[in-house]
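Workshop exercise sheet. Pairs work together: one partner reads the sequence aloud, the other fills in the structure field after running the prediction. Swap roles for the next sheet.
Pair: D.N. / O.F.
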Amino acid sequence: MLIQRTGPALAILSLVGCAAGQKYHDKTMDFAAVKTVIVLPFSNLSRDNLAGDRVRDVFSTMLLASGGVYVLPTGETNRGLVKASVSAPATPSKDEVIALGKALGAEAVFTGTVREYGEVRSGSAAANAISLSLEMTETTTGKVVWTSSTTRGGITFADRLFGGGGQPMNSITEDAVRDLLRALYK
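Structure field:
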């Protein structure tokens, strides 16, 4: 009987906190050649209507702060989307990525999907969580050269035991972006 009760608890504990997802790195891509990148609007599958914009802003800022690449400003990106006639900025086609790269002089384009963003509940416990995946596409061929995903936050054992509410959403978002940047630069 004790094993049956602890089994689900151990499974739940293993799912909370942080979880790094799968990642793909194209071995033939010269990532050192990438100097300028475009971060397109993120797809948002969460209940928060502004989650995609919030996460895109945090990712763009942290990517620029890393010093590895220059991130084109949002206004410049928006003008490029119009110039390259990109119909769905969150999910551009191969040809649209190539046209966007030519229009803005960028070597790569980042797209992303916010799958979960905000408060999650389990019983009386609640905490903030984010689940996010990103993709980098090279602009000369339109080929995906890197992709990774991560999940951060969630209800911890301490939240269940003592209440609380977890970490602030911005801290969890920054942690998730750090996970993705580590995956990118490895």
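Discussion prompt: Residues 17-185 form a domain with the Rossmann fold fold (CATH 3.40.50.10610). What would you look at next?
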